[in-house]
Amino acid sequence: MIVLGIDPGYALMGWGVVEAEGSRMKLINYGCIETKAGVPMQNRLRTLQLGVRDLLNIYHPDDVAFEELFFARNVTTALMVGAARGAAIIAAAEYTQNLYEYTPMQIKQAITGYGKADKKQIQQMVKLLLKLDEIPKPDDAADAIACAITHCQAGVAKSQFLMK
């Protein structure tokens, strides 16, 4: 099974592609889709949508796993990230109905065994679980990889379908 994990973001949208065979996992690739400040919103959203579409066409994932949004402070940022997430979901939904989402706490629990783990602990476990030489950078990509790993470990039976 090949899983595309996505960490929604407006300036940087992290992504990671993980292949799982049973309990063995392998990192295929990762990175970020970047949009520049000062560019009109519709152009930034289109860049994100096309970027996700390109990833789907390159890696042909079986499933797409999104990190669910969690914001407590800045409403404007939450709205912008929500729009970016929507652009990614539209691109993914054109490709497959196998869309899933995981809360930050579910990802932390799956990766570290502790639902309140910090970013450094998650990044270190991503490195260990995938037998990498170094922690994937930037953080947005590492978060997307963690989301993909969570989906691989959860299995479809335990996953939350995004598309209902």
TrEMBL record:
Organism domain of life? Bacteria
Task: Give UniProt keywords alphabetically.
Answer: Hydrolase
**Enzyme Commission numbers on file:** 3.1.22.4
Query: What name has this protein been given in UniProt?
Result: Crossover junction endodeoxyribonuclease RuvC
Q: What is the lineage of its organism?
A: Bacteria, Bacillati, Bacillota, Clostridia, Eubacteriales
